[in-house]
Structure formats: structure tokens, C-alpha cells
Design goal:
The complex is a heterodimer of chains A (116) and B (116).
Chain A (H helix, E strand, L loop, with lengths): L2 E5 L2 E5 L4 E8 L5 E7 L5 E7 L5 E3 L5 E5 L4 E6 L8 E8 L10 E2 L3 E6 L1
Parallel strand pairs in A: 2-11
Antiparallel strand pairs in A: 1-3, 3-8, 4-5, 4-9, 6-7, 7-8, 9-10, 9-11
Chain B lengths: L3 E4 L2 E4 L4 E8 L5 E7 L6 E7 L2 E5 L6 E7 L2 E7 L7 E8 L11 E2 L3 E5 L1
Parallel strand pairs in B: 2-11
Antiparallel strand pairs in B: 1-3, 3-8, 4-5, 4-9, 5-6, 7-8, 9-10, 9-11
Classes of the chains: A mainly beta (116), B mainly beta (116).
Chain lengths: 116, 116
Amino acid sequence: AQSVTQLGSHVSVSEGALVLLRCNYSSSVPPYLFWYVQYPNQGLQLLLKYTSAATLVKGINGFEAEFKKSETSFHLTKPSAHMSDAAEYFCAVRSREMDSNYQLIWGAGTKLIIKP
Amino acid sequence: ETGVTQTPRHLVMGMTNKKSLKCEQHLGHNAMYWYKQSAKKPLELMFVYNFKEQTENNSVPSRFSPECPNSSHLFLHLHTLQPEDSALYLCASSPGGGGKGSNEQFFGPGTRLTVL
């Protein structure tokens, strides 16, 4: 069965520093991969997605993620953190093997804390 | 209205009350989802509908009863809930239809439910 692991339930970085949020998946076939962001008391918003067109995916708010098949990873990065980036970030996957199964498998989430 | 809307945004109810949550999507999607998000727990998928037909019920207690009258509307009827049912209930939609593609989900802002 597919699974998603987000390393670190909380990540703290200083404003202006590099943001790195880790996501690893388990799947024999590279799946569709997503990063979502959730601000306090709001729903989830799609940041970016990997569909196989390019391994480096650019998203909204300056975030990007790189798909690495050899490492089964899809880590999220941003060169310079801003206070407004404080939120919870979720990684999710959808299998390509079962086209009729359109459900997402979710990671547990990583809360990003920005220090002034 | 655009995207996915949910009403009410906040709901407080007693254990003997009956209430309903409403979700509406304006994206022309075919699939709709109910999720439960509790503090310190991963996102839990509750129900999935595709073309108004329920395709997934993840062992949800019968005190939660979904209804999908058409592809744009989804309801969650609540009856004799327990305090542990207090959570953020999120609705989402996706293109669905069982076809190929990434089928990313778009979320509403959620209903914060408190059961007293």
C-alpha cells in the first residue's frame, strides 16, 4: 500500500532563511505528488503538484519542489522564509496504477514556524 | 461565489441535536469529499462521492450521514454526536469521473464543529 512520510511535525526557521520540508513516499510506480498549505482556521490550498512533466516544480508563494525518483522524495523548498509562510504543510500522493481510484494519501503534516 | 464554499463556518451543538453541514462547489467537478481534521491527528477521509454516487465510506459511525443530491452539493447530516466528534470538517472537490490525470482536490474553508 502507498504511504507518505513527512519528516518532522514541526520545523522552525528564521525569517530570510531557507525552508526545507521533507516528504517521502512509498510506491513502485512514481505517483502524482502534491503539496498543500493550511493557514490557521482555513482549508487546504494547493501549493504545487508533480505530474511527470518536469522534476522541478514551481508553485505559488515562491515555493518549489523537486521530484527525485531514486530517493522517492518530493521535498518542498523556499529560498527565503517570510513571516507569512507560517502555516501547516501537507504532502499527498495519488497512485497512477489505479486510475479509477482518485483518492489522495496524506502525510501527517509539518507545521512551519518562522522566527523573527 | 467561486471555488468550494462551506456553511456554517462555526457550529456548536449538543449531543442530542440534529444539524447539517453544507458544501457547494462551483468548479464543475464530479467528485466530492468529506474529511475530518482533529488536533494532532492526520487528515481523515470520511466519504467520497463520484457523479452523486457514494464510492467510499471509511468506517464512519452512522451518526454521520452524507447526502449528495447533485455533483455540486454535498451535505453532512449530524445526529447524536459525541464530544470527540469536535473537529474541523473539510469538504473538497476534484474533477473525478474515474479518468486519468492528477485529479487534485480543492478545499473549502471548513466548518469548525464543537459538540458539548
